[in-house]
Amino acid sequence: MPRVFVQGSPVGHHPRHAPEAGRGRIRRITEVGEEVLHKPCRDVTEFGPDLAALVDDLFLTMYVADGAGLAANQVGVDLRLFVYDCLDDDGVRHVGHIVNPVLEAPSSGRRLLDEGEGCLSVPGAVMDVPRPDRAVVRGQDRDGDPVVVEGTGYFARCLAHETDHVQGHIYLDRLSKREKKDALRQMAARRDEVYARRAAKAEALSRAQGRLTPSGPPCSGR
Question: What is residue 35's DSSP assignment?
């Protein structure tokens, strides 16, 4: 079985970081409570250099924050778009981006996995969230061509999580009031540590590549 899928298709090899990241700029990551995270995003209707540059920025920002996925509204951009670089439960790597994603309704009888889930916009918190063990997302690529991506296990969780983001939802919305308070307490306790780690990684990348200049505080929040 192929060990890497890019845009839903198998490839023989893919670099450790998606090539898009080498063209990107680090952006500030939005945090729970900011309006852009809590309202549905707009459909992408223009495909061109600006959209391609946003995909590049999302990849780089995601890597600096040690994320498995990142949606456009998590960098303050009100558009239906996310990127991902995520392993499934079998260790198969999935890399790509989806514009205007639509998550297919799960078929009846799909198994729910109640496992730990975090979010770069809720830095430091991890909570159990039930998600179907399989997800199919349909959308477009940055050129406007159709794309279909299917995932199982942890990658299915990633696809569902990121599609939630473009709908204006974060995983805290799926928790009880008590669980949400617990998550926010975790965030308050670990937030500074998470930000320091992101800043250190951004600085290390800047030194290594000599050109990565954050367009705002380095990865503050997610």
Answer: G
| Kind and range of the H or E run holding 61 | helix 49-64
> What residues form DSSP beta bridges with 149?
137
Q: Beta 93-103 vs 4-6: how paired, if at all?
A: parallel
Query: End-to-end distance of the chain based on CA atoms, in angstroms?
Result: 34
Cβ-contact 70, 120 below 8 angstroms: yes
Give the Cα separation of 88 and 127 in Å (integer): 19
Successive 10-residue mean pLDDT values, the chain, 222 residues: 90 93 95 97 97 98 97 98 96 97 78 86 96 95 97 95 98 96 97 95 79 42 33
Task: Please say whether the structural domain 4-209 has been given the CATH code 3.90.45.10.
Answer: yes
Q: Is the pTM of this model over 0.85?
A: yes
d(CA 209, CA 76): 25
Q: Is 193 a catalytic residue?
A: no
- Coil/strand/helix, residue 194: helix
Tokens representing 206?
Answer: 């800047």
Catalytic residue among 162, 179, 193, 203: 162
Task: Kindly state the tokens that stand for 210.
Answer: 């000599």
Which residue type, as a one-letter code, is found at position 87?
A: L
